[in-house]
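Lab meeting tomorrow. Please check the following:
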Amino acid sequence: MDDEIQLISDGDGLAVIGDPAAVERFLVSEGLTSKDLGLPRLGTVLSAGSAVTQAGSEIAANSGRWVKLSKKSAQLVQKHGLRESSKTHLSTGVVRGKHGQIKGFVEFTKGSLLTNPAVLAGAAGIMAQLAMQQAMDEITDYLATIDKKVDDVLRAQKDAVFADLIGVDFVLQEAMTIREQVGTVSEVTWSKVQATSLTIARTQAYALRQLDALAEKLESEPKIGDLAKAAKEARSKVQEWLAVLARCFQLQDAIAVLELDRVLGASPDELDRHRLALRVARNNRLDLISRSTERLMVRMDAAAGTANTKVLLHPTSAREVVDSSNQVAETVVEFHALLGIERGRESLEARRWTEAATEVRDKAFDAGADGVGAARRLGGETFDLAKSTTGRFSKGLTDRVRRRRTADDELDQEG
């Protein structure tokens, strides 16, 4: 009998469903690491009836694994030609092959597990939860690597908004623990967390205003010395406020995970629409954060441009401005990659320093050789930093994700 692997992609992850042995062969052949999809939970979205009984028995006989979409797994979706539904925005299909060899793509056939709309909606909801939990884990890794932990930042604030956020964190941790132990989100658990969104939103807005204030201060400083001071302040504060934003985003994802469970249990017919609405809301938050951080980088670039014009007369202050600009750029690039914000900002290029040095070349003899030497040294260092920024972060993030995935695989094997 042919192996049949049913595939679903929601843009964030890939679900692989089928006979346990066939699923394992497929994942090994494609070189993919995965997590348990939690397929038995789909039984909760079914109503009474003979078709349901058949679907329930098929769920019990199958295995489901979830793969986070990376460049490699995204190519797999294209390779097998999954077709996207305009209604659900899910890409679905089946691959089949004899004797464990997956050879081709076919449409879902009548009787396939995922031709049941309720089961498909349930699978998509669980996939969304897994994607958000993966993002939450990566934010935890990110917060653990920065010098100033976000909890320290929050506790240093006197504003009641921050104290409330710490309380929200405790409430959501408790709710997620109960969910993990029980497998569902009861009315009692949901009643504890449903009002927490407002506190998180207020804290996010506060952190965004702080980033905007740093950007405005950079724009208002006309003197190179004051500009260097403002740039250094931005350098020391930006990562703290980005850490606060990361924690807010993590808590918002936790609420969404609990929310999907609640809808799954109370109103399964609304699950797919709710999943899509949560995706839109999440993207809106990303856009808001992206616009704020990009405004900051525009101001940092402008400050670096001003420093270019002063490099000969004020080499030390100019160096401080550009060093701060590059450090902030690296921090923002890392933060954007963490949250999956595609629109990035190019690091400061050596061209700027080359132009600055060229413009003052004719004045070099009057200003002295030291000034020219400072400009050239600064230009070379800036170029090296710009080239290494993205690569260094990508390697670090890859290593952290690899360690987490290895740990997940070990837990799966033990289970």
Q: What stands out?
A: DSSP finds 14 helices and seven strands in the chain. The beta strands are 3-9, 13-18, 35-36, 63-68, 83-84, 91-97, 104-106.
